[in-house]
Amino acid sequence: MTKLPENFLWGGAVAAHQLEGAWQADGKGVSMADVMTAGANKVPRKITDGVVPGENYPNHEGIDFYHHYREDVKMFAELGLKAFRTSIAWTRIFPNGDDAEPNEAGLKFYDDLFDECLKYGIEPVITLAHFEMPYHLVKKYNGFSDRHVIDLYVRFAETCFKRYKDKVKYWMTFNEINNQSMYNNDFLMATNSGLVFKGDENREAAMYQAAHYELVASAKAVKLGHEINPDFQIGCMINFTPFYPLNAAPNNIMLAERLMQRRYWFSDVHVNGVYPENVETYLQQKGYRPDITEADREILKAGTVDYVGFSYYNSNTVALPEGRSIDENLAPEDVTVENPYLATSDWDWPIDPVGLRYSLNWLNDRYHLPMFIVENGLGAYDTVESDGAIHDPYRVDYLRAHIQEMEKAVELDGVNLMGYTPWGFIDLVSAGTGQMSKRYGFIYVDKDDDGNGTLQRSKKDSFGWYQKVIRTNGEDL
Ligand code: P53
After folding, report:
1. Is residue 106 part of a domain?
2. What is the distance in A from the centroid of ligand 1 to the CA of 335?
3. 11: domain CATH number?
4. Residue 342: CB partners within 8 Å, gap ≥ 6?
5. Which Pfam families does this one have (predicted)?
6. How does pLDDT run across 401-460, given as a tens digit for each residue?
7. Does residue 150 sit in helix, strand or coil?
8. Which residues' Cβ are closer than 6 Å to ligand 1?
């Protein structure tokens, strides 16, 4: 018996700003990602006020995929990929976000890239906004805190849908739109919504407003996309990090449930077209009155998604601290505890393969839609041996264990899964830290955290392993 359907989309995932580089080529504008400096392990990236001379901005060069894409896609074909998930850099198409006309050179780049993929039978899977809003919109509107940005995003989406309607079938509107539920984190607010806080603004209220405008923008785009090509499959994309209660203490169970509600209402709106009761009630309770019109509510209903795309890296275990109450609405970072059953990566991310099966089941029970695992993987330090080999059994162990759990979810639990695209299958700049040394790839790229290196590509041991996994449709792990 074959566990996975014959047309299962085995692939790999990246995002434009983390690999393309060429940040000023052919008319590209400055994006949010272009003003983020290099951080380090446990050192957050800085968001500078524009591009400041002397700072290290690793996304400016990325791995220069912009100039290497032909040889890279050839290697992706050798790996056996059936799907390539990337994003379209908004600033290549609309350099400032509000330009009168799109930038033809930017549009042409993605035409050429998609043609190159299709030549090898690789299906492009495209995210429209993956952490790289035009910086001009950040300055002018404070990102998605302004309603004007809805239509600017929709115009970008429409331009892409029309241009690539015969080349791209699978789309996602916003990458990990729910990261901003952790509104205390500057990086997540900036990358999701282009929100840069200057003082003591109410971050939570700002988040609910910006997220609403994004959800409206997404729904408008979904509706339009279906009109442009009824065969389009347009999904949402959420970061799925399930909250586990540390133990059976009822308050910990309720705490985990409450945190799940605060983190997953975004996909409730994407899928159901309405806000869940718990969010409506919470907004009232807090006295927040985001600008949500009746017309918006109609749009949300008219633009529900076709599938649920999600990333899965780890679970998050929580416990209510002594003397605290659930109704204080504690932030996840204030209640996260070590899970005694799980090992962690060098970046302290728990490693929890069963959590992937749990996530697939949870999402299936809640949404009853096809699902697409569009990111999963292990960031790790790799060592290049004197003969050039890179032995990365830790990466294979991580992925094998996750694929096994994914296959159980399909085979034994009946989930409808479209595909699996491991993250950063070619080494690229880490989103969270800006490091090159946090590597996810099967393909090694010679570049270090200071930007030195030849950019030469080579195969790690995991390359041959993943090739075999795809060839056997996940039978031989
Ligand atoms: P890096 C935070 C938490 C979970 C996933 O992350 C996240 C983030 C943002 O860093 O991002 C997703 O590179 C994201 C990718 C990113 C990948 O996970 O920090 O969609 O852009 O590279 C891995 O190790």
Report:
1. yes
2. 21
3. 3.20.20.80
4. 315, 317, 350, 351, 352
5. Glyco_hydro_1
6. 999 999 999 999 999 999 999 999 999 999 999 999 999 999 999 999 999 999 999 999
7. helix
8. 15, 18, 175-176, 179, 239, 311, 313, 375, 379, 423, 430-433, 438
